[in-house]
Backbone:
């Protein structure tokens, strides 16, 4: 075997790394693999990698030597400090023009920093979002690469070969160059934030149908199966449908979903998106509320105690027409979903302006069309919207989405009212509706807020009857009407 016979190197053989390695090899490439725990390398070579085009390596130096120049080496290790440490171990063995790729869920600022650092060493760096979970990694993920633009021609063939494919002929890869620096990881972060919103919306629809409409798991399966055949068709709707059919696999009676503790976990990317939305000053309210919903779910003991003390509505709300109620929930879910994605793309636009990233929003929607967790037929509409108007301020203003929101509005409002009267938490449904109502209004009560700020802090204000570049301050204490003694 030649000393430098591998087309690609991959470090980190946890589930995602192992599956990506198998995916790459299955497309006709020879892959050199390494893991810090070398027993894992041996187990892989004797297990899933046996008889295939892999080179098992027992050191970083060995892996680097086995990969053809310019080397393409992907790191699939835990985000943060472990990536920095691995980079430092790799650098002494790399040569000019080699490409380092980080495929983990990394914060975009770290990728920005590392890109500059690696480029200063005459090397190339790529931070790529990888979405689709372990199945996507194995069969075709959505890939969102960014970083050193000169790296793209070197990795394009492999990346587009392993990516999920969409289109009429199933030949359009869900992988395209996103932009410089941390752009790729930023797009993945927004993907994950939208995913948070999607999942919370589906959970609220489930609560409405189960407790508001009295649907059984079998009936829920049928509803979600029907929804997955229309405009809500998506991976998350599909797997939710499947979940309702799974019986308890631990020997108990009934369905597995009903035995799962109602405490949601989180890995942080939703929080990252929310935090950066605050930094940018954009109202990504739905990811923020979805993060808070998970935080509320974690207060299990407190909720159990509160449930014995705090009372809800005195009178019950009855659903008399179940088919109409189910359809209203569907419309509310679709309308809320539109608002969630609209917020995500507004944040992408703000970040692109902040960091001077040449993001192509229609292409980003296409990247998410297959392989990833939020893949949905709905994304074709988003691509079409930006194809029609590349400077679209908000998806809400695209004719298709405007019309969809108008048609869904009555049902959407009725479902939010139903939730309030029934005492069912509808954090995302009501948040999406409030966002829509705020965005569509020419006037908001922020005039009073500005008056308050000027009163207590002399922060100044603008006037509707004066040029906007003029600022005013009033002596509110002196001008006020004196309260009665």
Residues:
């Amino acid at each position: 075997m030649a000393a430098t016979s591998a087309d690609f190197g991959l470090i980190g053989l946890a589930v995602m790394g192992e599956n990506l390695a198998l995916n790459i090899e299955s497309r006709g490439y020879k892959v050199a693999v390494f893991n810090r725990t070398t027993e894992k390398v041996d187990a892989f070579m004797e297990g899933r990698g046996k008889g295939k085009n892999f080179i098992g390596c027992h050191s970083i130096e060995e892996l680097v030597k086995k990969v053809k120049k310019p080397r393409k080496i992907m790191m699939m290790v835990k985000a943060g400090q472990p990536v920095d440490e691995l980079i430092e171990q790799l650098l002494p063995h790399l040569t000019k023009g080699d490409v380092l790729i980080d495929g983990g869920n990394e914060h975009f600022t770290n990728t920005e920093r590392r890109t500059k650092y690696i480029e200063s060493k005459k090397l190339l760096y790529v931070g790529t979002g990888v979405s689709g979970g372990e199945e996507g990694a194995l069969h075709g993920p959505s890939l969102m690469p960014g970083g050193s633009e000169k790296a793209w021609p070197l990795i394009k063939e492999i990346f587009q070969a392993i990516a999920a494919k969409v289109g009429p002929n199933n030949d359009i890869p869900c992988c395209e160059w996103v932009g410089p620096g941390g752009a790729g990881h930023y797009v993945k972060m927004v993907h994950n934030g939208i995913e948070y919103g999607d999942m919370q919306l589906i959970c609220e629809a489930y609560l409405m149908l189960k407790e508001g409409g009295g649907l059984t798991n079998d009936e829920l399966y049928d509803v979600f199966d029907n929804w997955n055949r229309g405009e809500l068709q998506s991976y998350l709707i599909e797997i939710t449908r499947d979940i309702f059919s799974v019986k308890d696999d631990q020997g108990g009676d009934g369905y597995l979903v009903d035995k799962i503790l109602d405490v949601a976990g989180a890995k942080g990317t939703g929080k990252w998106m929310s935090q950066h939305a605050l930094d940018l000053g954009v109202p990504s309210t739905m990811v923020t509320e979805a993060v808070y919903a998970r935080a509320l779910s974690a207060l299990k003991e407190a909720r159990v105690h509160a449930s014995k003390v705090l009372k809800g509505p005195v009178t019950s709300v009855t659903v008399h027409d179940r088919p109409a109620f189910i359809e209203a929930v569907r419309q509310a879910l679709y309308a809320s979903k539109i608002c969630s994605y609209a917020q995500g793309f507004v944040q992408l636009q703000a970040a692109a302006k902040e960091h001077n990233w040449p993001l192509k929003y229609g292409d980003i929607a296409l990247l998410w069309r297959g392989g990833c967790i939020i893949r949905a037929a709905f994304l074709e509409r988003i691509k079409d919207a930006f194809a029609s108007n590349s400077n679209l301020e908000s998806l809400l203003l695209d004719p298709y989405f405007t019309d969809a929101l108008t048609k869904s509005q009555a049902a959407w409002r009725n479902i939010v009212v139903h939730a309030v009267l029934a005492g069912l938490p509808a954090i995302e449904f009501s948040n999406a509706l409030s966002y829509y109502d705020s965005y569509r209004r020419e006037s908001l009560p922020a005039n009073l807020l500005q008056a308050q700020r000027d009163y207590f802090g002399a922060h100044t204000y603008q006037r509707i009857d004066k040029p906007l570049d003029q600022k005013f301050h009033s002596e509110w204490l002196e001008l006020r009407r004196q309260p009665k003694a």
About this structure: The mean pLDDT is 94.
